Structure prediction request, 865 residues.
Amino acid sequence: MQDDVVIELKSAWKIFGSRDKEAMEAVKSEGLGKTEILERYGAVVGIADCSFNVRRGEIFCIMGLSGSGKSTLVRHVNRLIEPTSGEIWLMGEDVMKLSSTALREIRAKKIGMVFQHMALLPHRSVRDNVGYPLEIRGESKARRWNVSQHALGLVGLEGFEDRFPRELSGGMQQRVGLARALACDPDVLLMDEPFSALDPLIRRQLQDQFMALSEQLHKTTLFITHDLDEAIRLGTRIAIMKDGRIVQIGTPEDIVTNPADDYVRDFVQNISKLKLIFAHTIQVPVNDYVPAAGEDLGQSPRVSEDVDLDHLVDIAVTTTQPIVTTNEKGEDVGVVSKDRLLQGIKGGK
Amino acid sequence: MVEETTVQNTSSHFPDVDITQSVHDFAGTKGEYYATEFKRVQKSSSGYCWTFNLGAAVFGPLWATARGLWGLFWVFAVLELVVIVMIGQGLWGDLGSDKFARADRLQTNYERMIERVENAKEEGDEQGVESFQKRADNLAAARDKALAEGELAQAGKTRLLIVGLVLLALIKAFEGFSANIAYERQYTTWRTDSTVRSGLSWKSGLLGVAIVGFVYIVTLIRFTSGDPPDYVAEFPIDNRFYLGVAGWIDHYFDMASRNFAFLFSGISQGIRIILDGVETLLIGTPWPVVMAVILVFAYRSAGPRVAIFTAAALAYIAVLGYWQESMATVALLGTASFLCISIGIPLGVWFARSRRAYNFARPVLDLMQTMPSFVYLIPIIAFFGTGKPPGILASMIFGLPPIIRLTTLGLKEVPKDVVEAARAFGATDMQILRGIEVPLATPSIMQGVNQTIMMCLSLVVIAALIDAKGLGYDVLVALQYAAKGQGILAGVAILFCAIVIDRVVQGRFKDTEKGG
Prediction:
């Protein structure tokens, strides 16, 4: 299990300001809060005591509103921002102990990054943009061209190699950004709100494309977003941030069914639960179920206890009987009545 | 019916905004009064209404300072000063005092003359009596005339006094009527900006008293006393001080130029070597070759129209015999620009990186650009003597700032996220500078290059004053002998050089913009 952890942050803090070190000491010894630090040291807390780990192949989403510190947090992984305190581990290496040369090496070979505003080089062609990470590593032009051809193929942009970024639409530009991040075949992808600046339709398309690519390439991904829908669609696990702190980490289902506090509850309230909650979460054990008048479990449709609510609804509309769920051996384990199903859709248990 | 309701909605149906409390907070003392008056001012649709502030009328500028209206203070103070001088002259002025003094002198002479008449009478000198009596009569006439003139001036005093008093009343009225309007404006500003002065401040009132007192008293002395003390009328100067400082500067300049002679002559030598190279290229090469190269270059970089203009300009220069001088000027200019660019771009890069260095350099750059060229020609002569290398140095003082500034500006305007992206992919600082920052800043840098060349050109002409030769020298000679024809011909030759260079460089600049 431990070998599987690719990115790990241990109690990372970032305090902005000229007196950051003093403020950090005060936080450690006195446990000062955000407002006190601002008052006493004129320093702003960017991220506070953030710990999490990302496992191999996982898409780990960090979700939070603007100003919650999520973009600051992701920049700690490749040390674009230096933490004030805490540890950062990347594939078993202590990133904080790396020399600047070793750090550049890691950035160039192991990490690909995608930015909210694309950050393409406006004076270079699409091909040269995608080949830029390789150029930094000193690869030959021939190799750069081959690799960018391949990466652009992955994101479906063949034929645009010799255009300038400004000639492309926003969605296409971000695909160039993704291709550039994939060009050096990194182990880790850092995506800082990559789809936020795009309109909803294009965003949806790019999410789908990204998921397909992810299936195919199995890159460990740290994905920043302010959109919970996006986090739930893409994330294997989600961390929710507020005011620089991580309030909750869990699978999308965890977050939706067990919000850690009112803040998270507010967020998940309007999220569609249909694809996030499964029969086993809402079912009543078959032995405890008391059939109402006119119900006969013998005539009930049988379905696996691992199907989601969406599927259950489709079945429920075809029958008057409650639905019986079965385990992998085909034994009856639970019953989902219509009342239960409606409660489940509303998010209750 | 419908119309009526809409009209009502827009005028009377909204409740009044109650400013009473906030005006109290603003005005401090006499809040009630100002609340009422401000409401009246705000109700008037023209922005003006008849509201009279007695305190402001009586105390005038002192009221304005105490209330923190410094702009109004200066207006009131200057207006009052004028009438106070008038009234002061009317009351105590020594108008006509010179006439009375003259009358006194004449009276003394007259008495003396009468004495002589008496003496002559005693001695029985008929002729003497007659002539002395005649002189005495003349003196008396002159005395009476002086007295009359003095009295006339004295009478003018009363007129001055009356006009002064009338004006004072008018000014006081103006002060009283404008005070509340201005104060209401101050209040409106204060509502959004709490740093605006509010309330009644004795401290600032006392400062007003001090200023007004000093200004009024000294000015009154100057204008009312017939013979004001010298130190009031003119700044007391000690000439020895001036000469001493000038001598001291001379001394240290001489010492520096002696002790660092190796440095100054080294710089001169370095510039000389580059200049010689450029001059050989431009003047040593046969003129048809140079012309052809210039034409082709103009055509390639700026198109056929500029090439045709260039051909015409070159023809003018050559036909009027300015070829040698023009090439000498271009050589000076080329050397100066080359040095500016090769020093300025690295400096610009440094200043873009280091905020501290830029903060330190900015006033120096400002100074380099604002200092009149005549002023810095002097230290340059002192250290480097006269001739072409000092001329180039003088041009560089003027030509360096634009290239430095625009390089810094261009680099600072490179999008931060692009630089961050490059860093995220492991680029070194040098790779970022070469591959991203400089290419993206190129339009700005090229603009800097163009400006630098133009600045250098203007200075290269002025540098003729310190014997840098070239076309500027022809203009200088023409100026000295008021030779209009020669001067204009040489001036037009300079103009053509400037236009051709500007067009060609601009043409190249547009090229890079297209490519970028």
